[in-house]
């Protein structure tokens, strides 16, 4: 039997790719990998079942993908797409069309929660349930194997019954779970897919040779009848599905039914559910049945068309209580969708099928929203609940609902694991290769032994310093535990710091193995382990092994990648395979995995492997424990505990955020969570993640106080202040200062401090520091030094620094970086990638305008590091003012922000009218009214004065009972300028949100769009957008993007009324500041396109600013400002601030892996695209240079032809 | 009178002594090679395959491919990975194969290894790819004060010996001028199996930016003055060793070619002139050479080779003079001003 070890996405993509001719794709987690596979295979020329390479096309949104799917199907092509969540919702209009037109198609959906009170990338059935009215068939698979199988079954059924199918499976739990499965070979697919039905589909295609029209507008006379005309197709569809499943069974040996019942034939309690929960439920049922319980499970495969008769037929007549579990919430409904359908089925069909047998009671419950764990204990809790005569209906399981008391109690001791399996939990750092190594281990075992294998990975919501937890099961029997490991037999900790942070050995079975990457000797490791862990080791009589993996990896030339080292240790200790065989298989795996990347990579990994086995040692804790020296308590690490750190934090931080930080969020009760999704800002400061190995250290003597390090810091951890010398009188020891160099602060004292515990160690500050020691130029005013020895002292310095007064904003020269950077950042300590290219722009905006900022943030990186729980970097100043932030959707962000602006303008208008009326009536002093109405709020002092006037106004109205006056009091704050910002990435601005952005820019309203242009969909893993430059390799453009980058700025300029700026902080920082100030001051729409280097570019992030400069120097990124106000002064609104091409484009492209990659895969194409890109660049430069020519006076006007000089036409881009 | 420009180098018969020297911008792409052939190149030495560079390329590729991956649930990775990577050495070999198929001019590969086994491995692959000859570019800058000159010389000799034993290709060795006794080194290399010696490799020399206090990679192309160094050593070695001598560095005019041939070179490698003026410069060099020969009544290039070598020149001791006091004492600043420029 051939097997492959893959995740659900790959399993589905392998089938879908071969069965289609057109594949329309758009990225959305967790479905993106299906599109990525398809694109990568097409780039390599892999054929489908009929020998052709499918056309894999990326669209601008899921709505676009659905439209393309619709069009391709109407033209007779076999077509598919992949999506999830709100992406599926964007397809709904077309789903109705596809169903209404009886179009055979299968769309694959990795089910994901819908954004409601908050967005979630994790899995539940909210999305697919929202489509149940579209007329699409819905077929739900429960495991990786089923996902592959149902992808094929759905295709046959759809072609035969002519209904569009949504093939859905649980996001992450199935889409990202790795399992050993049997692949579907071409012969099976050939035998399964009905050729005649394909011909019929093609025959229905629109063609001028047989012209018809479809998509007509229908009137009251016939529309209704038309809707009813499809009934027969829906009646027959379940039969087609059953037939397809039977035919599939004959070909594969795997049997399915539209409703699969398993359990006792005389069951009295039966669960009904769909998706991956079925696996855990069926496994649990086996255990309970062995204990004599009469329980059963009905797995819903075909959810639409809902075959009520088949469902009831599948149920045993003995059942007296049915528990229907929905993995979604339908607020305000009489029950969740599956529950309601089951109720209807029982009501309508029970007597028909089971005669006079008493109709069972049906209870509904909710579980597993957003991938909340669904464990055997929860299955048992539900079944126990069904026993109760007065059992609560509409219950929940898996949470503690202390608000409405609908949750079921759990027995935490009910844990079932296959005793013959190896169950490993591995804690790793995101950057150390742990997950990659574990995936390789699963592949090795899954593909070269008879053992079954499963891997599931819990990732972090932070992009820097992230923690990963891998859950691996291996065993002789199929693994149907779709939940995290509760009773590990093996625990590995790949990072020493975790011993303090996590309860690593929770649930470990007696005699289990604990593998620890320790920087200490064996005996020192024992003494340094927290007593909590030592007790667990003693109590469980665990076998403990240690290795200094970081050293082994370093010595083998692998840097911080300890993957091979820890993988070797895992195989050596876990007992999954005999040791010599395991090691040999790792060797083979290394050669296989890395061989294509070159001998050097293979050699280093093999060296690391050999060295690992030599240095792995058993920790003789029994002996060490007995010795008096080692019996000492673990050495204190010197860091305060989380609760100590949070002693002065707000209650919400202590009571809600802190447990989430400690990975105990699952235990928070319902009452703890804000009911409308509103969370406090300024919370990232409490995290103190201590993730940097090295932090910047300031040399006060060398420093020229330019502020550049402060400006580029993506995490706002390096800051400057200036104050009178007296303010430093109580400075702690070692707190460095220098006399302020700026004449504006003559006599004052300057300091730069680093938030050591919040720093990510990206070193961007060092890169931009211009101040070198002229006697030893390798020394700069900022250098990196190990964090740990500095931590404690730096903590005190930082606390003191925060207490120093902020520099008054009103007097600062904002065009001078050294002064501007003294403004307090109101965006700090985000979880963005170390060295992020986006966040310095946001931090800058927060410094300049944060105290009056309203932010509409498109979904993407910036919404994740900006608003992914538990903390947010957006914060407030001492007066309590700061950016107010919200995320609506990915696609509507411009319109969302526009709504904010319109509302603010309306409130202000009403307030002005009230002000005028009350002034006129003598209620308010006329000079105050006039001053407020005519206030100049174009700069900081003006705004400060207006704030004062409004405070005065509010004080006068504070105690009034007059309706009109109270109304003004409520609206008074709108009289102070509010700065509305639309923030998002290029995926939003260039693609999915472009229509809205365009509309809003055309509106003339005073708002500011900031496009953080990474030239790729960064957040979802680097898919190509229309901002991706020609020749760059990206996901969805694996063969290198063939089209040029869209010129968004030029498009916006055509309105003539939009302020447009293109900036790159790393190229010209003062230009960036100037553009931000101009944009915000422009009383109309502004668009700033900010070049943002990104980890998806394949660059050394510590040199991100150099890459920005290279992009500008090569002419690939232009710096310019288009200010419509210049028209009024008779000047050309466009100022081209770039010097033109100063470095060869090819040279700068070669510095980024995204461009280099194509040379490795398709060298000729890479060269051709680079050549065209150079030509394009020159053309673009000439265009901009012509557009930026000084305006000629009216008297001097000539015809456009006359103005066209030869020099313009043939200008040298330099 | 028609002049026979043909010469023989490493057993290859060449249409002229004008060989394109190793430089990436000249030979990276097939169409460049075609242009060079069309312009009259007698042979092309491909840019060097640097083992260390290839190794670094592989490690970089791996580093960037996995950077940031597998740590954040929405972005398991950031770049698509093709199933096949055409790495530097593979592309190099493919280029040799393609050049062999599409061009008629001899292709001389150039190799710089850094570890003993790899010299041989790559040399074998280059031979299999169809190169006509191999130039070993022994390019290293020893900076370890504990390493003796003797050890370095032995290493160089060993490389040549090992490659010679493994491949049948004609073998040239491109040398650095910085050997304690270059003549002895040349002899050892000839004995180790080199068929030709290329004098000399020009090293990249970094420059200091005195304002920014950083080093700047500042590639300086050769000038005609640079040919003095190879000229002297070729003249000294000519006739003493059973190897072909090739000149590299400073060939910009037809008369430069004449000088080096007179010293004893059988070919002259041209790089800087082509980088400055393009492939077309080759044909004018060839014309200048032919014209000079014609004007001086030479029927063949062969007549010229070595006529001014130390063994055959009128004043052999001039080649050995380390200091020429008269020249220094007689130097006047306007000499420099009035001296003919490099062009």
Could you list some keywords that capture this structure?
heterodimer, A: 1214 residues, alpha/beta, 8-stranded mixed beta sheet, 35 strands, B: 343 residues, 8-stranded parallel barrel, two-stranded antiparallel ribbon, 13 helices, 41% helix, disordered C terminus
Question: Could you explain the architecture of this structure?
Answer:
The complex is a heterodimer of chains A (1214) and B (343). In chain A, strands 1-8-17-18-16-19-20-21-22 form a 9-stranded mixed sheet. Chain A has an 8-stranded mixed sheet with strand order 29-28-30-31-33-32-34-35, with helices on both faces. A 7-stranded mixed sheet of chain A has the order 3-2-4-5-7-6-12, sandwiched between helices. Chain A has 1214 residues and is α/β, with parallel strands linked by helices. Chain A is built from 46 helices and 35 strands. Helix content of chain A is 40%, strand content 14%. Chain B is α/β, with parallel strands linked by helices. Helix content of chain B is 41%, strand content 15%. Chain B has helices at residues 24-27, 30-38, 51-66, 88-102, 116-129, 149-166, 182-192, 228-237, 254-263, 272-277, 281-295, 325-329, 333-338; strands spanning 7-9, 12-14, 18-20, 43-50, 107-112, 133-137, 171-175, 196-199, 207-209, 214-216, 244-248, 267-270. In chain B, the strands form 3 sheets. Chain B has an 8-stranded parallel β-barrel with strand order 3-4-5-6-7-8-11-12, surrounded by 8 helices. In chain B, strands 1-2 form a two-stranded antiparallel ribbon. In chain B, helix 4 (88-102) packs parallel to helix 5. The radius of gyration of chain B is 22 Å and the shape is globular. The model of chain B is unreliable at 334-343 (pLDDT under 50). At the A-B interface, helix 2, helix 15, helix 22 and helix 43 of A face helix 3 of B.
